[in-house]
Amino acid sequence: MAGLSLELIGLQLFAGLALGSVYVLLAIGLSLIFGMLTVVNFAHGAFFMLGAYVGLWLLSIGVNFWICLVAVPLIVGGFGLAVERTLIRPLYGRGIDYPLLLTFGLSYIIVELVRIVFGKSGYPVATPDALQGAVDIGVGYFPLYRLFVMGVTALILVGLWLFLERTRYGLIIRAGARDAQIVRVLGVNISRVWLMVFGLGCGIAGLGGLLAAPLQGVIPEMGGPILAEAFVVTVVGGMGSLMGAVLAGLLVGVVVSMTSLFAPEMAKVAIFALMAVVLLIRPQGFFGRAGLMS
Amino acid sequence: MTDLADNSAKRLAPSGFLEFARRHRTLLAALFLLVFPLLVPFKALAVNILIYGLYALGFNLLFGYLGLLSFGHSALFGAGAYICGILMVHVGMPWWAGVLLGCVAGAAMAAIIGTFAIRTSGIYFAMVTLALSQCIYYVFYQATGLTGGENGLRGVNVEMISIFGLRLNFVDPLTRYYVVAAFVIVALWILSRILASPFGAVIESVRENEARARASGYDVRRVRLVTFILSGAFCGLAGALQAIHLSIVPIELMHYETSGLVVMMALLGGMGTFFGPFVGAAVFLLLENLVSLWTVHWQLFVGAVFVVCVLFFPRGIWGSILHAMEKK
Question: Smallest CA–CA separation between B302 and chain A, in Å?
């Protein structure tokens, strides 16, 4: 294997962690929403895609990239709030499959609306000027933007952890995930908590879309494959576990980048093989509780 | 999914026309399918309705009767289509062998996916089937030598067919309809027999109360796997028929949107009812035919059907009709 040095493997490992960061952003939103609302958001890929397009639109009208980093999650999260309030809330208590079917249909609508507004073909997205170039990370030069994506993800994770573990609101959310009935009895408006959690998850997915846009460009169908990959992450990590989402997201990213180095033709399929193995050995995932899903 | 159960048909008063219709549902369906092409403007559309109707019936065996929501049925449908096509184009098998082996391929694919997916249930099942079908999609997409990759598998042509010395022109739309209808009617009869058998009762008992089914001594996991494989056989047959109908196997058959389509058809028609999915497929394809006349954005319509059905119309068309008759 000529040209395959330790440095190359090291760089590819970092590339995998950067890719994994995007998976992590999707998977924590999915896990958070599932943990609280027991809803699997099949429109999560569509929210991801929406984030990329909203970012594209804001950039095209001259909005600064740094402002986009705040504005995109707010806009996509706001849309998520509207979706929860109008479409998903009527379905609570009507069986676990209904919200799933509804969000799946919703993803068709979102994708088609984006096609109508922005056209069917995709666009490339330029890396922001301040984040172009590469830096030496010890094993070689690595694109600055990918480091930035990893940094933002780490920041979001720390912020989310502090929010959930150290604030009053986070306490309510954790309590609600354990027993919504008791929290309601204690006088907390749990529907509002659910609303906020859904919006938060969608907002983080939108941010993921914005961050991924310069890496892969935008196209209306970009949410489909990544939704399947985010499902792999949640299955491997264990549904409803944030820790599982983070570790499995990074692992899946590394598996993708390592297989594209060693066996490019296997790159698309490898993570599904990983999921199959996890299902055989530990059906509830790394951090999932046994029996949670049955 | 208890509220959507097939009970509606069973609680009907055991007398009169309804009871007769329930007992002889395959016969009545066969008679209807014989006159159906006379009611539809385009014969190719009628063939499409037959094929997607069969696909939706196969899907509903799993979703409506066993209560497992799969988002990976495109892999079963696509496997039937591709294996039928590959055997005819690359191996030179006759069309009927291709169709029968396509049916077997659907069952085999279901056995592979099922082995992994059955280990989970509930929401996990939907996610795992979607992910695994995406994996199968990539495998077929990349095997360009066999499948033609992005361009699809071309040349699955059937022109003249002979059955017991009778020579039929398969290019003629009406003849094609009746050949496909013959397969669909046999499949309907088999499906009806399965559901009426003791095993059919076991399938429904697993949906209604898994713990009790287990306590009664049934191996729930095995029931699920066998039902998934049966579902795969019906969907594989539908896929194989689609291959000879289109003369090409487009890669889109494997795409997860093809899985979503069948979920939507079952939902629209009424899941857990015997004919509901077929009705859903027919209504959807007829509407799509109209909608696509004035807009190319018919996916908007697909999504809207999902949302409206889930929010306001969870019984579906056929389910609502049965419910109304039961009330009288």
Answer: 7
Q: Which helix (H) or strand (E) holds B44?
A: helix B43-60
Q: Are A198 and A81 in contact (CB under 8 A)?
A: yes
- Write down the H helix ranges in A130-284: 144-166, 168-178, 180-185, 190-216, 223-237, 242-262, 267-281
Closest chain B residue to A265 measured between Cα atoms? B142
Please count the CA atoms within 13 angstroms of the CA of A25 that sit on its side-chain side. 30
Distance of CA B145 to the CA centre of its chain: 28
- pLDDT by residue for chain B (328 residues), tens only, comes to 444 444 444 444 445 677 777 777 878 888 888 888 877 778 888 999 999 999 999 999 999 999 999 999 999 999 999 999 999 999 989 999 999 999 999 999 999 999 989 887 777 888 889 989 999 999 999 998 888 888 899 888 887 777 777 777 888 888 889 999 999 999 999 999 999 999 999 999 999 998 999 999 999 999 999 999 999 999 999 999 999 999 999 999 999 889 999 999 999 999 888 899 999 999 999 888 888 887 788 888 889 988 999 999 888 898 888 888 877 6
CB of B4 closer than 8 Å to CB of B315 = yes
Q: Would you give the end-to-end CA distance of chain A in angstroms?
A: 47
- ipTM, interface predicted TM-score of the complex: 0.84
What CA–CA distance (Å, rounded) separates B282 from B29?
Answer: 13
Contacts of A42 in chain B (CB under 8 A): 71, 126
Nearest to B170 by CA among B92, B246, B82: B246
Calculate the CA dihedral of residues B74, B76, B80, B82 and round it to 10 degrees.
50
Place of tokens 């999932």: A288
CB contact under 8 A, B310 and A275: no
Question: Which of A96, A110, A279 is closest, CB to CB, to B123?
Answer: A96
In this structure, which long-range contacts are made by residues B24-33, counting pairs with CB atoms below 8 Å and at least 24 apart in sequence?
B25/B192, B25/B274, B25/B275, B26/B185, B26/B188, B26/B189, B26/B192, B29/B185, B29/B188, B29/B275, B29/B278, B30/B185, B30/B188, B33/B181, B33/B184, B33/B185
Q: Which of A33, A75, A70, A22 is nearest to A53 (CA)?
A: A75
Contact A109, B303 (CB under 8 A): yes
